[in-house]
Design a protein that fits this description.
single chain, Jelly Rolls, nine-stranded antiparallel sheet, 1 helix, 24 strands
């Protein structure tokens, strides 16, 4: 019998502006360190107006993190300093490990007038901050969907459910990343490893994620769970609920965060920005 975790913190995502003028909703970020460790930030860039996102995210650097782009609609065209180019289309995932450094651009584009998705930032541990950059690009058809009794459907991006493993592998924080849909009044419980951080972000409908408070969480609500207990449990509202669930092993390391670069010390940050100035930021693969 699982013991459900309780919600430690919940909040609505906040409107903000990023890139060259992209309007988005930030579920959590810099001001929440270290509550979501090993996760750093979650951005929700679902939008109805092209003017909110077409300016995109022109060329910019990353070091010391992994970025996870998950598209629901439309596409994100991208290119980088490694000569890599392509697009992340609806239902697809790009898990980019920036490691020692990468310079890239990400440009959202509508398809049939629609565009929307999410980007999650995952911190890299100190010993892997300067690893070689890499990509895991997962097509929609490669992401398994698990159907469970009682009106539960789960897209397994990373992690395992009902013996089915997601296609994203070998990630440093040992995370899970699931896209879960429940029908009206359906109930669902998912185990979380002891000591791992767990959180959910509601992207449709409503649901109760903490029976002790019996409060329905709605679209664009972020909930962080406490560490006691061994499962996340949810009961859907009358119209069902859809949410992202992610969990991971906390790094418990110091965080020095400067824009798109996340290191462990201010000295490492200063070195990274100095290397950007003198064109030594991009390292040769080891």
């Amino acid at each position: 019998m699982h013991r459900a975790r309780i919600i430690l913190k919940r909040s609505l995502s906040r409107e903000t502006m990023e890139g060259a003028g992209v309007r988005l909703h930030r579920a959590f970020g810099y001001q929440d360190i270290p509550a979501f460790d090993p996760f750093l930030m979650l951005d929700d860039f679902r939008a109805d107006r092209p003017a909110d996102y077409l300016a995109g995210f022109p060329w910019h650097p990353h070091r010391g993190i992994e970025t996870v782009t998950y598209m629901l609609e439309g596409t994100v065209e991208h290119g980088d300093s490694m000569g890599h180019a392509g697009s992340v289309d609806a239902g697809c995932v790009q898990w980019m490990t920036a490691g020692s450094g990468i310079i890239h651009q990400e440009m959202p584009r509508p398809v049939n007038g629609r565009m929307g998705g999410f980007q999650l930032w995952v911190n890299l541990p100190r010993k892997h901050k300067m690893m070689d950059p890499r990509y895991q690009e997962i097509k929609a058809g490669e992401i398994p969907t698990v159907t469970l009794p009682g009106g539960v459907s789960v897209k397994v991006i990373c992690g395992t459910i009902a013996g089915v493993a997601g296609p994203v592998r070998d990630i440093m924080a040992e995370p899970e990343y699931l896209d879960i849909s429940l029908g009206p009044d359906a109930q669902f419980s998912h185990p979380v490893k002891p000591g791992y951080r767990a959180a959910v972000y509601v992207i449709g409908g409503t649901g109760i994620f903490d029976e002790r408070h019996n409060e329905e969480l709605e679209n664009r609500t972020m909930a962080l769970f406490g560490d006691e207990g061994d499962a996340v449990s949810v009961r859907a509202g009358r119209n069902g609920v859809r949410f992202l669930l992610f969990s991971g092993k906390p790094l418990r390391e110091p965080v020095a965060w400067g824009g798109p670069i996340v290191m462990n010390t201010q000295e490492e940050l200063q070195q990274a920005f100095a290397e950007l100035e003198n064109d030594t930021f991009i390292k040769k693969a080891s």
